[in-house]
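Local shape tokens

___
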Amino acid sequence: MFQTIRKFIAGGVAAVRGGHEPEVRVLREPDGAFTVGSSYTDHPHYTRRCWVIRDGKAEERDIHEATVVEGLFSARFAAGHIPPDREVWLRNEITALTARCCPWVNCHIGPNLYVTDLLSGTNGAFWGYYHPNVGEYGSIFVNTELRTDRVIETTHHEIWHIVRPCLRREALAAVDAHVQRGSRWANHAYLNEADERRARAYAHYAMLWDEGCSVPVDTSDIDIGRLGLGKMDHLRVFWSVYSGGAAREIQRRTAQEAA
């Protein structure tokens, strides 16, 4: 028994230190297909696939080809266990979602996301991450080895982060007028940080739509070109991001500035 325990520990430490997969690992979602003595790669849901998504197109890559290193930032995925049908569904759903909300961004998705960002002091496993200066127009990274709805909620969260710098100050002020009234999360610096609050609020809003619970908002007099200056509230700002209106306006402004 102790030899088996040492084997598990040694495999896990080797994976952390050397970046390769341990021979044996305890599954997060055991389904009876994994038996004692089987290797990690014998499981029918084992995957080494990840994707880079941009402008409505998804390019499949092996996890060892998908490591992103730029300056003091690096992100990588590690092999995981995702049912093939769920893996394909997530790829298609996130491709459509980013094509609508932020088509200019590189969105990297795959199992077991690890990020090192020396500028911010970040290092470890993440559900999602964004970096405005990685890639030509910024990048989003999403861990797909989560429960399906958590993957989509995380994608919404990171979309907010990547779109937010392009929104006008008045639009952010409309959001802040509401989220700043919320609970102070036990003096937790991350949870109370201004844009993390906005991102979580937006992701909850987006998930309501995804669950079929539409949020009433009068869009009849929204000036998308100005993101509703003067009459915009937080729901209208969120709708502009979720519906793709903000993305279209950002692209229009970018094209004008480039002309």
Notes: The first strand starts at residue 46 and ends at 47. Confidence is low (pLDDT under 50) at residues 1-36, 221-230. The radius of gyration is 20 Å.
